[in-house]
Each structure stands twice: as structure tokens, then as C-alpha cells.
Design brief:
It contains 9 helices and 7 strands, in the order E-H-E-H-E-H-E-H-H-E-H-E-H-E-H-H. The protein is an alpha/beta fold. The protein has one domain: Metal-dependent hydrolases (TIM Barrel, Alpha-Beta Barrel), CATH 3.20.20. Helix 6 links the parallel strand 5 and strand 6. The structure holds zinc ion.
């Protein structure tokens, strides 16, 4: 088995529905010996916006990015093993105008899209990426784009080809999320085979809402090994390391 860094790239803080401050998360991650963490607080203007706290104003997003950048720099100065990444989790039931008005992709290291469940969703995300490409050009390429806790059952019987070519074209990564073990069951073997055949990037996130789940990356890593996706994961890690230098 290849030695992989300890990563958890899906964590919520008090900027949305997480229980801890970003600083608390960083300190715990240092204690746990993690190598990469990404804070990915919620962004939405769907019905969910009224139910959970989220990054709902430009001022709040700015404060969030500043706090993350400051801590990122602190960790660099400290010179330890932990890298902090700036992320955001976009609910794709939000409106196109709201997303493109509020989000500047180059401010983030990682952008997760959640609730991609059909071909219409693919079209929606494509349009956002197109908008970003046109407005931000090369800078936007630096950003890693992923699908949060994607459920393969939605694409089980049709449209799998459309999904795979979409992921391939935009180099979008698939997240193994320790909070949703059912999505990685053997019944989706065909799906993971497609990821392998098409060299789709894969990564790990724990959807942590408190400190107790910060280091839950073992099970997702096992799934990656079971489905023989270690090279896909290694390519993701390489991209992660590259954008750090
Ligand atoms: Zn999440």
C-alpha cells in the first residue's frame, strides 16, 4: 500500500452548522497529526438557508476567508506537518445568480458541490464553471472542485456516461465521505470501476461537525483500496501538493 497523507477535506465550523471555531479545529488537527484539512462551510440560498447557519453575506464570507488565510499563514510560519485549506460547500439547489454573484472561486482552495443528483444538476454546475472560466480565467484553474457525498444510486441506471465525461472534462473529484458509508457499498462496484477506468480524481472528507470525527479517514481510505483507486487518490494528492507551492 502506498503511504498517503492523513487528510480530511470536508469540515464545518461555527461559520455554518459546525460546533467549533476554525482555530479549535486547527489545534485538534495538529494534535491528531493530520496533514491536510479543509474547512468547507455551507453556502446556500435554497430552503436550507433558513434551517442552518451559513455563509450568507459578503461580509461574512470575507471574514471567513480572512480568518482562514491568517491561520494558513500561522501554520506555514509554525513549520509543522499540517496544511489548512480554504473551502466552501455550495448547495446546488441555490440559484445561479446568487452563486455567481457571491462566490469568487480564486478565494478558495477547494469548492465542493453538494446534491448533484441528476443530469439537470450537471448542466447547472457546468454553467457555473463556465461563468467562472470566463470571468476569472487561469486563476480559477488553481481551485480544486469536488462532489460532496455524491450518491451513486442516482446515476445507477442511466446517465452514468454523462456524469463521467463531465467529471473528466473538468477534472472534478469524487469524495469518499466517512459520514455516508452506504454510498460506497459493493453494489456500486460498476460505478467505482468507471472512476478507475476514466482516471477520475478521488479524495477523502469526513463531513466533520465536531472534533470527534476529525480523524475518521481510515474507512474512506479502505474503500479507496478496495476499489483499487489508489492511483486516482495519489493523483489528487499530487495536485494538492502542487497548488501548495
Ligand atoms: Zn458538509
Amino acid at each position: 500500500m502506498m503511504p498517503f497523507p492523513k487528510i480530511n477535506l470536508h469540515i464545518h465550523s461555527i461559520y455554518s452548522d459546525g460546533k467549533n471555531s476554525i482555530r479549535d479545529i486547527v489545534e485538534k488537527a495538529l494534535n491528531l497529526g493530520l496533514n491536510y484539512i479543509c474547512i468547507t462551510d455551507h453556502f446556500t440560498n435554497s430552503w436550507k438557508a433558513n434551517v442552518i447557519p451559513n455563509l450568507n453575506t459578503k461580509a461574512k464570507i470575507e471574514k471567513y476567508i480572512t480568518e482562514l488565510s491568517d491561520l494558513q499563514q500561522e501554520l506555514i510560519d509554525y513549520g509543522g506537518q499540517l496544511t489548512l485549506l480554504k473551502g466552501i460547500e455550495i448547495d446546488i439547489s441555490s440559484s445561479y445568480d446568487y452563486i455567481t454573484k457571491m462566490i469568487v472561486p480564486e478565494n478558495f482552495d477547494i469548492i465542493l458541490f453538494e446534491y448533484l443528483e441528476n443530469v439537470e444538476g450537471i448542466g447547472f454546475v457546468k454553467n457555473i464553471l463556465l461563468n467562472w472560466e470566463q470571468r476569472y480565467g487561469k486563476n480559477y484553474d488553481e481551485c480544486l472542485i469536488g462532489l460532496a457525498h455524491f450518491d451513486p444510486s442516482f446515476f445507477e441506471y442511466s446517465s452514468l456516461g454523462t456524469l463521467i465525461s463531465f467529471l473528466k472534462r473538468y477534472d472534478i473529484y469524487f469524495e469518499f465521505n466517512s459520514s455516508y458509508p452506504d454510498f460506497y457499498s459493493q453494489r456500486y462496484k460498476f460505478f467505482f470501476k468507471e472512476l478507475k477506468t476514466n482516471d477520475i480524481l478521488v479524495s477523502i472528507g469526513c463531513d466533520s461537525h465536531d472534533l470527534s470525527t476529525l480523524a475518521n479517514f481510515d474507512e474512506p481510505l479502505q474503500r479507496i483500496q478496495i476499489y483499487d483507486l489508489e492511483l486516482n487518490f495519489a493523483r489528487f494528492i499530487k495536485k494538492l501538493e502542487k497548488r501548495n507551492h
